[in-house]
Each structure stands twice: as structure tokens, then as C-alpha cells.
């Protein structure tokens, strides 16, 4: 049995959690939260990091912080996780879905730029599988007033032309959900790259209060200053996360080996039945996932069935948002984004996690090679 995902464990999480249990700070924004934030700021050069309970939470902070609401629009791919859209929708912002680029399954940058109107306040690129959206092309195609807000939930440790994903716009979001490379069960981070937004970000993060300023001695009592919420994780969560963040190089080296084994074995098998996504620069990705793009939805289903019969758990990609029940409620129809509708169902994600070794990859690739032989001979 080869599971699709197995959450990463370093073996050092318990030691840090014990330190929390031995102390008196549990609620969050304590020493472990600060250590995680400083580690991320130092390693990746993010101006200010605020840990959140999820990437969903970090995305929800964006419209609050930029004061986006009714009358404003954001452009984002339909091929993404629901939170990318929901975070803005719940603030009353209009959601404008754009097409996917079938070469990468990332946002089609030209299509996104073509949807800008005078109401557009931001574009939200999603770095699918830790492969960067072409952020330079996106920036060049947008008016200066339109923000880039990166959903880098899958993008930690990946870069675009040397710069870490999540650092390109005023705000970015990371996820530490157990399905991501580095996790703490549920967790995330808001990356505040615009120094002018830091103070208000901290107040929104502190349930809308200036409690942080009280701890720094800047005010003698705290009060309600922003529309905020309870956005940060407990110290127990942050202690778990610190153990993982400290192991990121080791984690990444292992994933790199698995990734290259997949690529070396499957690149020669590409053709009329499936292709691999186009990766602009293999040096810059974070080896978050490995997926194929089949020639049809039926082939994608058949591949998953063939693998499933051999106890290998392959998985589908995202079900498009625009044609989902919520998307239809927003006034969209499947035909509005034909490329997304066609390609989303052709994605086959293969098992990919740190508990796999090369033998596991070989088993998956052998099964795919058999599938190809059988489909070509018409069995
Ligand atoms: C995982 C993921 C999210 C949600 O992250 P949570 O931390 O579970 O809230 C959002 N967007 C993308 C692209 C993701 O992959």
C-alpha cells in the first residue's frame, strides 16, 4: 500500500511541545511563535511574518488589512482551493475567476490581466504544486494600483528568479496544513512585505486589539482598534512547527530525490496518453507534489483505477471553483472557463511524501508503464 500523503514527522516535535507544557505560555504569540516567525524572516527575507491558524486565516486577513469590500474585485484562478476565493468573498469582494495555463496548471497570466477593470484591487496567483506563477509577467501586465496577493500555501522554500515565493506583493499566505511539505497539523502564516502594513496587521491578528502594543509598553491598556479576529495558533502548535521548520533542508533534500526519480522515470513515457507539467526552472521548485496531465478525463480516471488496483493511492486535482455549487451561485457556468473545465479533470496527482523511497516511486512508475503498454495495445 502506497498512501497518497503521509504527514511529515521530524521526531523532535515532542521535545518542543514538552517545553511548552513545562512553561506558562500556551495561548499563542509566545516564545515558540516568535521563534518560528524569526526563522522564516531570517531564512527567506520576509519583512514580517505572523503565524496564523491556517492559510485560510492568512488569506482572510488580506481584505481586512487592505480594506477591500463591496464594489471591489479580485481576480483569481478557478483552479484552486476554495479558501482562495472564500477569504475575499466573505468580505463582500467580487470574485473574478480566470483560466488556467494547461502547461503548468497555474493561472493563465495573460487571461488574468485581460480581466482587470477599474474595480480590480488585486490578483491572487496560486503557485500550484510549488511551481511559481510567472510573477514578473503578471506584474508587468497589471496597472500599478492592482496588488499581487500570493496564495503561496504550497510555495514555502520555492523561488521565482531567485526570490522566495510569498515575497512579491504587499501580502502573501503560507500553509502549514499536514498535506504541505512542512506542517503543524493546521497552521499558516501571513507574510507582510509592505512595512507600512505591519502595525495594523498585528492589531487585526490580535483579535482587533492593540494588545501587542501593551506588551511592548507602548500603551498602558489595550482596546478594540480594528475589525480583527483570532488568527494565531497556540504555542503547542508553534512548538511543533519550529521542529519542522528547523528540518526544512533535510525535508527538502529527501523530496528532491523522490521528485527526480519520478521525473527520470516518467519523462521518457510522456506522449499521447499523458504529459508532465512544464517546470520553468527545476532548481527553484520546492518538490511539493508530482502530477501528470492525462489526454482526457477518462484516461485520468483509468490511470487512478489502475494504480488503485495495485494499492497505490493517486488523487485528482482541484475541482474548478467556477462550476462548483458555490460558483454557480455566484453566477458562473461551466462554459465560462472552458480551458479550466477541460484540464482540471485531467490531472492525476501521484503519491508524494517524505515516507516514500525510490522503490515506492519505482512501483508507481512500473504500474504506469504497464498501463501505457496495455492502453497502446488496446487491452
Ligand atoms: C492548502 C491550501 C490552502 C488552504 O490552506 P489551509 O492552511 O488548510 O487553510 C489554500 N490555498 C492553497 C493553494 C492550498 O494548497
Topology:
Blueprint: H1 13-22, H2 31-44, E1 48-52, H3 55-66, E2 73-77, H4 82-89, E3 94-98, E4 100-101, E5 106-107, H5 109-114, E6 120-123, H6 135-141, E7 147-151, E8 159-160, E9 163-164, E10 171-175, E11 188-192, H7 198-205, H8 211-215, H9 235-245, H10 248-266, E12 274-275, E13 291-294, H11 297-309, E14 315-316, H12 325-329, H13 338-343, E15 347-349, H14 358-376
Parallel strand pairs: 2-3, 2-6, 6-7, 7-10
Antiparallel strand pairs: 1-11, 4-5, 8-9, 10-11, 12-13, 13-15, 14-15
Helix pairs in contact: 1-9, 2-9, 3-4, 10-14
The structure holds pyridoxal-5'-phosphate.
Q: How would you characterize this protein structure?
A:
This protein is an alpha/beta fold. The chain is built from 14 helices and 15 strands. The chain has helices at residues 13-22, 31-44, 55-66, 82-89, 109-114, 135-141, 198-205, 211-215, 235-245, 248-266, 297-309, 325-329, 338-343, 358-376, and strands at residues 48-52, 73-77, 94-98, 100-101, 106-107, 120-123, 147-151, 159-160, 163-164, 171-175, 188-192, 274-275, 291-294, 315-316, 347-349. A 7-stranded mixed beta sheet has the order 1-11-10-7-6-2-3, sandwiched between helices. The protein has a 4-stranded antiparallel beta sheet with strand order 12-13-15-14. It has a two-stranded antiparallel ribbon with strand order 4-5. It binds pyridoxal-5'-phosphate. Residues 54-56, 80-81, 83-84, 126, 151, 153-154, 175, 177, 188 line the site of pyridoxal-5'-phosphate.
